Amino acid sequence: MAKKRSAPVGGRRENRVEPPPPQVNSASGRRNLILFFITSSIIATVAYRFRQSSPPQYQESYVYEQGLVTIHANYQDVLTENSKVSENTSQRHYNYPVLGYITPWNSRGYELAKRFNSKFTHISPVWYDLKSQQTSLVLEGRHNADRGWISELRKSGEALILPRVVLEASPAVLLGKEKQRNKAIKLIVTECKEMGYDGIVLESWSRWAAYGILHDPNMRNLALQFVKQLGDALHSIGSEKISGQRLQLVYVIGPPSSEKLQEHDFGPKDLETLSEAVDGFSLMTYDFSNPHNPGPNAPLKWIQIVLKLLLGNSGSRAQSLAPKILLGFNFYGNDFSLSRDAGGGGAIIGRDYLALLEKHRPELQWDKNSGEHFFIYNDDKDIRHAVFYPSLKSISLRLEEARSWGCGISIWEIGQGLDYFFDLL
């Protein structure tokens, strides 16, 4: 199963920037939903060009040479070509930062990180949790760290290694007392020194939202100050790998839940507050749909609105902060049941997607409004399903969008994708 990070609290699926797809509540509703997929009325129409020819930066890319980056994708080509990439796997096509997450429950990601190391600027293995232990704090996860893999990764490319740390500790314990804040920062910095990391990826905002502390102005300020203090502490330490390079902090943020920012949302002011202390913001622009509201994983129009909310339409602010945004890309998909009595469905990864294509041989349909491919099939119990999974075309459009803003990208997670996705990076 494609295990993913927790979604931020606050109704990202209930009160978001675009109305959700209609829910299925009858046989007629199921037919309407299928028609809804086909006619692509999920969100307001967004105009963009479909480039069927290879952009200059992709002239030596196998997937472009073979004409695979197209809205007219078919299951045969996916099954035949998904493992094929350009001979020169070290050539980077995307020149802004690229962060790839790796999970210990998906070993394939470790191999892909070594194979395509040069495509990434940052690799983040999901290893650590900072937890409360009675009245103290403990950093758990070193048992996940693979020193041999780290050594091989460093030999095969230049990607920085920033393991993810999730703050599981109670905010009352962690943020309420200066001594505890200092203890948490010391634990993290010490681990980076002892293990030779290049910094960390920190995930805490969604946890703090879940505890409800972001509604309290004082606690919200303490939360921001903690992130700033951690960033400053990491920046005070030199990297063992690169002379003159300081340890880095990447901070995980969720997309605003609606066009009117809520108290728990990470917004433009927060971005500015942390911009000096944080080297990158890993923006989770995926999980737009869910089993209760089946539909695309990350509609392009929604991504554009999220970026506008955080960065504004133009000007010096957007130009200065955009390079620190790492726009989230999902390399997993979803297989949604269209029957209310069938459990709703859930996440799938690359091997699951290929198995569905092999079994059902479906027609891949293109939803021009969301910029995603999908297909419909009936399972062995004759239950209707809708499957949304990334395609070369959907990824290329999101890369173009990120490039137009000057943003980097972050991928959750690289072991869940298909090999030829990396030919676009």
Automatic annotation (TrEMBL):
<feature type="domain" description="GH18">
    <location>
        <begin position="96"/>
        <end position="425"/>
    </location>
</feature>
<dbReference type="GO" id="GO:0005576">
    <property type="term" value="C:extracellular region"/>
</dbReference>
<dbReference type="InterPro" id="IPR011583">
    <property type="entry name" value="Chitinase_II/V-like_cat"/>
</dbReference>
<dbReference type="Pfam" id="PF00704">
    <property type="entry name" value="Glyco_hydro_18"/>
</dbReference>
<protein>
    <recommendedName>
        <fullName>Chitinase domain-containing protein 1</fullName>
    </recommendedName>
</protein>
<keyword id="KW-0458">Lysosome</keyword>
<keyword id="KW-0732">Signal</keyword>
<comment type="similarity">
    <text>Belongs to the glycosyl hydrolase 18 family.</text>
</comment>
<keyword id="KW-0964">Secreted</keyword>
<dbReference type="InterPro" id="IPR017853">
    <property type="entry name" value="GH"/>
</dbReference>
<dbReference type="GO" id="GO:0005764">
    <property type="term" value="C:lysosome"/>
</dbReference>
<dbReference type="InterPro" id="IPR029070">
    <property type="entry name" value="Chitinase_insertion_sf"/>
</dbReference>
<dbReference type="GO" id="GO:0070492">
    <property type="term" value="F:oligosaccharide binding"/>
</dbReference>
<feature type="region of interest" description="Disordered">
    <location>
        <begin position="1"/>
        <end position="26"/>
    </location>
</feature>
<dbReference type="GO" id="GO:0005975">
    <property type="term" value="P:carbohydrate metabolic process"/>
</dbReference>
<dbReference type="InterPro" id="IPR001223">
    <property type="entry name" value="Glyco_hydro18_cat"/>
</dbReference>
<dbReference type="GO" id="GO:0012505">
    <property type="term" value="C:endomembrane system"/>
</dbReference>
<dbReference type="GO" id="GO:0008061">
    <property type="term" value="F:chitin binding"/>
</dbReference>
